[in-house]
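2024-03-11 09:14:02 INFO worker-7 job=invfold-0412 stage=load source=structure_tokens
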């Protein structure tokens, strides 16, 4: 008998995902060129798990029920193209290929167009939740042909994480909608991670918190409105002992953050769309600055830094919780704003409330806040920005003062709080009726006759400035 589901790429994510599929009662067949990985998966087959694997692409494709449902969990880039190339001679019209990696959205559009010519359905489906998520329930963000989605829906809904019984997967839109949403998910992820690292820095430098105290603060916060995967793992991280010393592992880790590109793509594309995402931008910048470790070390010796004042622990902890809450909201607001604009620009027809919904469990940015965000967008599908949702005004108003206090403290004491600062700047600018950018228009018209508009009447104006 033929198999329900095929998976190419039996690395950690692929292996875990296919086991998850089999756990849920679907028969699954894996393919990888690595014999060891194939054998390891074959060994998982038993009565409960109808699972098999092969190093031969032909055997793999032949083993699958039609229309074939083949998911690719391989590194983004050229490998995706070469896997598709190798599948093409064996698959048939109507078959479904699903790219589960973090592919760049224009690559997905190109692949979809190519495959459409052969009547093969192509999905870009972002999968979030890391190795554990893939095994036990990820959040899945599929985009592609709506009619073909019916074939993969039962499998995806079974394997996805559940929030109050609802699966964290939904058809998001045509073409690269799924990859685009996953890209922005990761941009938000970058912002939230940067913000938690700044709060850690403040607790340490201004409050003299030891690792247990940092652990305790994040743990306590995770029991309240800040409840989220990233706050939870942050609390755990401060408990982790180092095997090679008597210290905590966190104090032994080099402060250079790597990146695979999805955060940067979010910033780049947001800029192309003209949508500001300064918290995400600065999170990318900080990874870049962090990489300049030797330059930072040399520059540190050149300049004096203010001596950091101490803040009373309980006071700092309260301010930090409120500032983190405020800046988390602002980060989601920025990311969702990009999605709304991308939806118009690329014709994705995204429903933001559905996206917030499938982010409530399984993914890296899952958070209690996402239930509130879902509600806000369910109430008003065309909400221009989360910050103006009636559901959020009190939350933001009640926490912004603490962000101000900490940003001011950081500036005065030489502690960089770029994510927090940019979140505050974004909020202050977005909520200001009259910004000084009338001057920029005047300057542009002055030196380049670029024209300006007026507050008091319609039209386009130019002034011969020097003659006045
Ligand atoms: C997820 C993650 C994942 C991503 C890592 C690493 O949702 O499970 O976003 O897709 O690969 O977070 O990203 P960076 O290497 O760019 O930090």
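2024-03-11 09:14:09 INFO worker-7 stage=emit residues=468
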């Amino acid at each position: 008998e033929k198999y329900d589901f095929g998976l190419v790429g039996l690395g950690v994510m692929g292996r875990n995902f296919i086991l998850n599929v089999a756990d849920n009662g679907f028969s699954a067949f894996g393919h990888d060129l690595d014999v060891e990985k194939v054998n390891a998966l074959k060994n998982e087959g038993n009565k409960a798990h109808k699972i098999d694997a092969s190093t031969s692409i032909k055997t793999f494709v032949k083993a699958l029920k039609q229309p074939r449902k083949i998911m690719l969990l391989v590194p983004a880039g050229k490998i995706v193209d070469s896997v598709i190339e190798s599948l093409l001679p064996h698959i048939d019209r109507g078959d479904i290929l699903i790219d589960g990696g973090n592919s760049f959205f224009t690559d997905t559009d190109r692949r979809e167009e190519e495959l459409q010519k052969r009547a093969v359905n192509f999905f870009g489906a972002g999968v979030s939740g890391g190795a554990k998520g893939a095994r036990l329930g990820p959040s899945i963000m599929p985009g592609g042909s709506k009619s073909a989605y019916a074939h993969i829906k039962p499998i995806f809904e079974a394997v996805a994480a559940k929030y109050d019984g609802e699966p964290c997967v939904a058809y998001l839109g045509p073409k690269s909608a799924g990859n685009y949403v996953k890209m922005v998910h990761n941009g938000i992820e970058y912002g939230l991670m940067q913000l938690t690292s700044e709060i850690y820095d403040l607790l340490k430098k201004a409050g003299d918190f030891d690792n247990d105290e940092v652990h305790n603060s994040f743990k306590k916060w995770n029991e309240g409105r800040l409840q989220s995967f990233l706050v939870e793992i942050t609390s755990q991280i401060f408990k982790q002992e180092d095997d090679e010393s008597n210290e905590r592992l966190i104090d032994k880790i080099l402060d250079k953050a790597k990146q695979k590109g999805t955060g940067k793509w979010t910033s780049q594309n947001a800029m192309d769309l003209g949508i500001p995402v300064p918290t995400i931008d600065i999170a990318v910048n900080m990874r870049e600055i962090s990489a300049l470790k030797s330059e930072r070390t040399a520059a540190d010796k050149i300049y004096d830094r203010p001596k950091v004042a101490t803040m009373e622990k309980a006071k700092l902890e309260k301010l930090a919780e409120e500032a983190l809450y405020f800046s988390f909201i602002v980060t989601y607001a920025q990311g969702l704003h990009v999605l709304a604009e991308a939806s118009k620009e690329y014709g994705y027809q995204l429903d933001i409330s559905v996206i917030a919904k499938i982010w409530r469990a399984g993914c890296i940015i899952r958070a209690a806040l996402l239930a509130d965000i879902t509600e806000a967008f369910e109430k008003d599908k065309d909400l221009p920005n989360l910050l103006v949702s009636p559901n959020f005004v009190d939350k933001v108003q009640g926490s912004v003062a603490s962000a101000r206090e900490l940003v001011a403290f950081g500036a005065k004491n030489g502690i960089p709080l770029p994510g927090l600062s940019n979140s505050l700047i974004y909020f202050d600018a977005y909520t200001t009726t009259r910004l000084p950018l009338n001057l920029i228009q005047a300057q542009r018209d002055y030196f380049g006759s670029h024209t300006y508009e007026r507050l008091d009447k319609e039209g386009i104006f130019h002034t011969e400035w020097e003659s006045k």
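2024-03-11 09:14:09 INFO worker-7 stage=report msg="The chain has three domains: 5-175, 182-430, 437-467."
2024-03-11 09:14:10 INFO worker-7 job finished
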